[in-house]
From TrEMBL:
Entries under InterPro entries matching the protein: AI-2E-like
Originating organism: uncultured Quadrisphaera sp
Keywords tagged on the record: Cell membrane, Membrane, Transmembrane, Transmembrane helix, Transport
Location within or outside the cell: Cell membrane
UniProt key word Cell membrane: yes
Region (Disordered) residue spans: 1-68, 429-461
Transmembrane segments: 95-116, 122-140, 152-177, 230-255, 297-319, 325-349, 356-378, 390-420
GO cellular component, one term: plasma membrane
Protein name: Uncharacterized UPF0118 membrane protein
Family to which the UniProt record says this protein belongs: Belongs to the autoinducer-2 exporter (AI-2E) (TC 2.A.86) family.
Lipid bilayer topology: Multi-pass membrane protein
Composition bias, Basic and acidic residues: 21-52
Origin superkingdom: Bacteria
Amino acid sequence: MRMPGRQQDRPDQGSVAATRLQDHGADDGRASADGGLAEHGRPAEAERRDAAEAQGHPADSVEPEAMAAHSAEVVEPPVLSDPPSSPWSDGFGRTAVRCGQALLLLALAALVVYAAVTLRLVIIPLLIAVLLAAALAPVVTRLTRVGLGRGLATLVTLLAAVLVLGLVGFVVVTAVANQIPALQDSAGQGLRQLEDFARTGPFPVTDAQLTAAREGALNVLRGDAFRSGAIAGAGLVGQFITGLLLAIVVLIYLLKDGPSIFRFFISGTRGNRHTRLLHAGERSASVLGGYVRGTTVVALVDAVIIGGGLLVLGVPLALPLALVVFLTAYIPVIGAVAAGAIAALVTLVTNGPTTALIVVVIVLVVNQIEGNVLAPLVLGKALSLHPLAILLALTAGSIVAGIIGAVLAVPFAAVAWAAVKSWNEDRRSSAELLTAQQPPPPPPDPGSQQAAPLPGAARAG
């Protein structure tokens, strides 16, 4: 049932709408007076209505003053909060991580050394074969450029090497065999001179003491220790022959298929990493081959000069001593000292102290010429290692594999350093190339500091 009183009290809906339209019209007038028209000639009130509808509010519920204030605000980009800090992000944590990495590297190095000592009968022939292959590879390459196949070029190179070694061995053995009688006489005379010097020297020795020392030496030669040492020496001879055969077989395959073998090992890499590994391998082979060839030239010059001096002085076994000088030249630092000591001792026994002193002077002069002139000229930068690094490599190689380890330690240390340098140089070059290819950053937009347009304005456009 309708109630007339209530109907009369309720204001007329039409009058309310008219009043609201009048209010909005007044607001529109004020907004147009304050802010003018929006983009594309639309009134500011229309912009406000569109913005309010885009935000989900009724158009009439947004006050004009609030919309004007919102349009004047500068929209700032959102500020991202810092990621949660890691418990290892402080200085102590970084130090702990570095210490862990160092311990891991030391453990790997110890494992490698243990494996090398355990498998030295395989590792040493393999390293010798790699050393010889790096030295002979340029000869094989030149023969292949002439027109020979790689297998035939390998065969010719090995036959030439065997011929040279056989000729040298024949000359040395012939010289030793021809000088054995003279060597026995010279050795006996030298021992008598040493005994006379011991009797009349600053610390005189009696004949009884000399006789006791002579009998003690003979007892050592006749004792069980010498026989067991001889048996052990026979075992070492067998190991030497086995290692020599293995080194020859590995050398043949490295000369014939060396590039293919290396490409197989790096075939699992792609892109820049593959290129860097290829360059590092080529650099290592170049350094190793240059070291072997340069050391061979230096050793040959030393052997010729010292051997010629021994021949002029009339020292027996001059050619074998020259061969010893040649072989010990492959051991840096200590090789020259060892060769000089051996030559001086042999000369002392066979020719007396005066001639031995002259031999020592010759060896010292040759070593000075080698270290200051010949080695820098021939080797160049093939052995770019600090003397301390050379000494440590020699010590480690001698502990692991004796004389052979001392011969192999320094060139392979130089190869490892050359590979690291090549890898770092290629990575630095790649980084510089990428930096040069990147376009410069665009200049800052002057309008980026202004207020961002409202969504309603974007739709209106």
